[in-house]
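Hi everyone, sorry if this is the wrong subforum. Our group has a chain we'd like a structural model of before ordering constructs, and none of us has done structure prediction before. Sequence below.
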Amino acid sequence: MNKFNIDFYALSDIGRVRTQNQDNYIVIDNGEKGFLAGVWDGVGGCDDGKFASKTACEFSEKFFLENFSKSSDNIFTIKEKVENINLKAHLHIKELSNTDDKTYQTTSSILYIKDKNYFISHVGDSKIFLLRDNECFLLTKDHTVRESSVLTQVLGHLNDITCHNVFENIFENDIFLLCSDGLTSFVKKEEISEIIQKENSLENSVISLINLANSRGGTDNITVICLKTSINQAVNK
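Answer:
Right subforum, don't worry. Here is the predicted structure as tokens:
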């Protein structure tokens, strides 16, 4: 059983301009297997970004349920498994692209929590933030050409991808926020931190952030997952 309880709220919004939502997300609290959250943002310039993000989302959920164990694997084994979610999803999407003679591409930002650690595997320009002790930290690095929004790495692009991977300890009252760039194109890191600290619930935080992005243009789909850790009392007894 996880050392931490995790409360969360997630929402995806089409925005003010787009005619379809090409974002997808999952949040899975699987008890002894751990907690998995992810955001996928389909690349609009490819043949079907919505299909790409949906496929990656569904593949990631299946891979997690089939390959993650209830036992306490060592940190490096877990890190490899989390990275493999993206690597295997990438190969799966590439295979579909070749079969259909189309280009399917999507970003992927995955957060996994097990026992007292968090693990991140990231490709693209969606983002994961950590709010701890009233400070906000960006945990992911964008795979983009410097000072532009041109993506250099996404699932389904090129033959090989290099994931940005992170693993660290988690603490009580840590707040993680995963989002597509539909949020961060309009809302700064400092504003994200301010709103989460001001609101009285994760739900209100997510809704306020999405409303703010929409009020400033909402030219893209906006997906936000916000989660908070607390000590699992059952584990400590």
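For your construct planning: The longest helix spans residues 75-100. Residues 64 and 85 are 7 Å apart (CA to CA).
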